[in-house]
Design a protein that fits this description.
Layout (H helix, E strand, L loop, with lengths): L16 E4 L10 H15 L4 E4 L9 H7 L3 E8 L5 E9 L2 E5 H5 L17 H12 L4 E5 L10 H6 L3 E3 L18 E3 L11 E6 L11 H5 L7 H22 L2 H6 L6 H11 L3 E4 H9 L1 H7 L2 E9 L8 H11 L3 E9 L3 H6 L4 E4 H4 L3 H6 L1 H16 L2
Parallel strand pairs: 1-2, 1-11, 5-6, 6-9, 9-10, 11-12, 12-13
Antiparallel strand pairs: 3-4, 4-5, 7-8
């Protein structure tokens, strides 16, 4: 049988072992639930099929859950939420490697009743999470950043780890990016000394600088409730923050401000770079941490996906990373998604043979979100008929 082109029905050979390595469908299914539903649909058509589930994440929300699904231990700790109220956040630990997700402490989902606070939300709790991982003996810290409620340049995180940011009257600046406009002096000499003894990896799917037209306030501030005036205030405040830090720690502070990843998660990437973090694309880091390579070697067919397959997917999102690695290993890849906004030729260039959208079976997007699980199982049945027959 001739091999079908993208959008065709069957592969040349039937797959015998399937690896499901998909991200969450944001707002409807976690990555673990996606893997469960896909596995159930496949096995309904091919009973006894060997399916290995490896939920993935790109450093944003869901990163800890993916690590736990891969065998890490979930550790919970009480930390400050973005508005200072105490929340229970989790990190993941295996051996001396910890996966810390800033959204667990400082994410949008931590805001009470969806109240947005672009000027005052703080990353202090993210610093407390990192400190908890250090207390647990972690020597490698994978710091996944994304989904933040904050635009404070990581100032809150640094303060939780021992830095001091003071106004002209000697009092601490107010929490959040807005408060940095009053910053008069910065002192990083009190940072936890253990930070100099560990490997800190900044894992993110964005490479924005701290400020400017492509910086954190301009690009991501509106998602966090920032008005055009707020964006201007935050950009000016973070520019001032970097300038004061330049006086405190030298030219490296200015260099970090324009480095890839500095603008990640409201600028917490900048704070992480000041701590000595090395920046790597989030999905590449997580595939290493989760043990993707050996799982890929065992697979005949790889199924990846996320809620929306679109242009953003191609720029560092989990499915693109999975597909690139699978293609390099000579493995065939198909994708599942809620919504598909990429033509077949772009999917093909990304290494994805074919994509299956929930909207193919249920055009009503609201119903797709509400009933994503059952529809995804039916979608997986289609994959089984097309690729596992």
């Amino acid at each position: 049988m001739a091999d079908a082109a993208v959008g065709g029905t069957r592969t040349t050979q039937s797959a015998r072992r399937v690896l499901v390595a998909a991200d969450k469908f944001k707002g409807s299914l976690t990555a673990v639930e996606v893997a469960d539903r896909v596995s159930a649909g496949l096995r309904r058509i091919v009973p006894g099929l060997v399916v290995e589930a490896l939920p993935v994440a790109d450093g944003g929300d869901g990163t800890v859950a993916a690590a736990v699904a891969a065998g890490f231990e979930r550790r919970e700790v009480r930390v400050a939420g973005p508005l200072g109220d105490e929340v229970t956040a989790a990190y993941a630990l295996r051996g001396d490697t910890a996966v810390v997700e800033m959204a667990e402490a400082s994410g949008l989902q931590r805001l009470p009743d969806g109240v947005l606070a672009p000027l005052t939300a703080s990353t202090y709790g993210s610093g407390e999470l990192l400190r908890a991982a250090l207390d647990a003996g972690a020597r490698t810290l994978v710091f996944g950043v994304g989904g933040s409620a904050t635009t404070d340049g990581g100032a809150g995180m640094l303060a939780a780890l021992g830095a001091r940011f003071l106004k002209a009257d000697g009092e601490p600046v107010a929490p959040g990016g807005g408060g940095l406009a009053e910053l008069a002096s910065a002192d990083l000499s009190g940072l936890d000394p253990r930070l100099g003894e560990v490997e800190l990896i900044l894992a993110s799917d964005v490479d924005n600088p701290l400020t400017g037209p492509k910086g954190a306030p301009a690009v991501y501030g509106p998602q966090k409730g920032a008005s055009p005036q707020d964006v201007e205030r935050l950009d000016a405040a973070l520019t001032h923050f970097a300038k004061v830090l330049e006086g405190a720690v030298g030219p490296v502070a200015a260099e970090y401000a324009v480095s890839s990843g500095a603008g990640a998660a409201g600028g917490i990437g900048y704070g992480a770079l000041l701590l000595g973090a090395g920046f790597r694309p989030g999905i590449a880091v997580m595939l290493d941490v989760l043990g993707f390579a050996p799982a890929l070697e065992r697979a005949d067919l790889v199924i990846t996906g996320e809620g929306s397959l679109d242009q953003q997917t191609l720029h560092g999102k989990a499915p693109a990373g999975v597909a690139a690695a699978a293609r390099a290993a000579g493995k065939e890849v198909v994708a599942v998604c809620g919504r598909l906004a990429l033509p077949p030729e772009e999917l093909g260039r990304a290494g994805i043979r074919r994509a299956y959208a929930l909207t193919d079976l249920e055009p009503d997007v609201a119903k797709c979100i509400a009933d994503a699980g059952p529809i995804l199982e039916r979608t997986a049945e289609r994959i089984a008929r097309d690729f596992l027959g």
